[in-house]
UniProtKB/TrEMBL annotation:
Every NAD(P)-binding domain range: 9-198
InterPro entries in alphabetical order: DVR-like, NAD(P)-bd_dom, NAD(P)-bd_dom_sf
Gene Ontology MF terms in the entry: 3,8-divinyl protochlorophyllide a 8-vinyl-reductase (NADPH) activity
Reaction(s) the record says it catalyses: protochlorophyllide a + NADP(+) = 3,8-divinyl protochlorophyllide a + NADPH + H(+)
Taxonomic lineage from the root: Bacteria, Pseudomonadati, Pseudomonadota, Gammaproteobacteria, Cellvibrionales
Pathway(s) per entry: Porphyrin-containing compound metabolism; chlorophyll biosynthesis
Protein name: Divinyl chlorophyllide a 8-vinyl-reductase, chloroplastic
Keyword Transit peptide: yes
Pfam families referenced in this protein's UniProt entry, alphabetically: NAD_binding_10
EC number: 1.3.1.75
SUPFAM superfamilies xref list: NAD(P)-binding Rossmann-fold domains (SSF51735)
Source organism of this protein record: Chromatocurvus halotolerans
């Protein structure tokens, strides 16, 4: 493969893996970054060209990022880290809008967007922002590939330290209300890279999960207790807790952006405690493991096995610490 590729959000969790995968395939990769990385902190980007741009300006992306070069495709792995309302619209929509504007001006023919499977049932600010940009991309005239992955492995790693410490595994409700087909960052990077040459990925919205059957939170707990050789202990948390927190914060949301974000975080918690990260079957209107395409070979169980021996290095949990 000898493509010239532009990657925005290259320093992120998936972006780093994508750049490494593209370089392995022989692509010439230029990374667009918000700030210059410290030497040696992003080894996955070694071999790529690094350019710092202002993502709030299409002119900056054009001048400092594209810089008159010709590219076959642009990838966007831009995403908000926390899901706050203002940040969501700023990153998920506005920054992507400026990236698309610069790509069109430079006649880059193909735009690959890393989205999320949860936009199927939009209830949160970041989901509405993602969908708004998806619609803009669909009508842009560029060839597009919109990739909607299910949960990442790191999203299901927040309770590993609890298990290591002999604590209980937290589940919402009965622990079987939701399910997902988790995908590793390596497999997702391969799927994204395939979009360059796979005609079936062109002008398509592509849900994708990892290999194997769907897994519930209760099954995740069982897996961790078995791997870490701990006696199973569960704490069942009522889903209504999120609604109570949101209701308490809502009166203050119009007065303070910080309060609005906290209320939004409560809605985010409730969403992930009640919604499966699976494709919705158009015939039944329900989340379906069978309707969720599988890709790759990395399994969650093998990942958990590695964390027991290698720790969680590279799996920065951040807002995923609870789940």
């Amino acid at each position: 493969m000898n493509h010239r590729v532009l990657v925005a959000g290259a320093s992120g969790y998936i972006g780093r893996q994508l750049v490494a995968e593209l370089l392995t395939r022989g692509c010439e990769v230029t990374c667009l970054l918000r700030t210059s990385p410290d030497a040696g902190t992003l080894p996955e980007l070694a071999g790529a060209v690094l350019r710092v741009v202002d993502f709030t300006s299409s002119d900056s992306i054009s001048r400092q990022g594209i810089d008159g070069d010709a590219f076959d495709a642009v990838y966007s792995c831009l995403a908000t880290r926390g899901g706050g309302i203002r940040d969501a619209w700023h990153v998920e929509y506005q920054c992507n809008h400026h990236l698309l504007t610069a790509a069109r001006a430079a006649d880059i023919p193909h735009f690959v967007l890393l989205s999320a499977i949860c936009v199927q049932t939009p209830k949160l600010a970041f989901q509405h922002a993602k969908l708004a940009f998806e619609q803009e991309l669909l009508s842009s005239g560029l060839r597009y590939s919109i990739v909607r992955p299910t949960a990442f492995f790191k999203s299901l790693s927040g309770q590993i330290r609890r298990i290591q410490q002999g604590k209980s595994f937290l589940v919402f409700g009965d622990g079987e209300q939701t399910a997902c087909k988790p995908i590793s960052e390596r497999d997702l990077a391969m799927f994204l890279a395939n979009c360059l040459q796979d005609d079936g990925a062109h002008n398509a919205i592509l849900p994708v999960g990892g290999p194997g059957p769907a897994i519930t939170p209760l099954q995740q707990g069982e897996m961790l207790f078995r791997i870490y050789e701990k006696a199973p202990r569960y704490t069942h948390v009522p889903v209504q807790l999120f609604s109570v927190v949101g209701a308490v914060l809502w009166p203050f949301a119009k007065l303070s952006s910080a309060a609005a974000d906290k209320a939004e975080f409560a809605r985010i918690g409730r969403f992930y405690a009640t919604e499966s990260m699976l494709s919705i079957d158009p015939e039944t209107g329900r989340h379906s493991a069978e309707a969720t395409p599988s890709f790759g070979g990395d399994t969650l169980e093998a990942f958990y096995q590695r964390t027991r021996h290698q720790g969680l290095a590279g799996q920065e949990l951040g807002e995923h610490a609870l789940f």
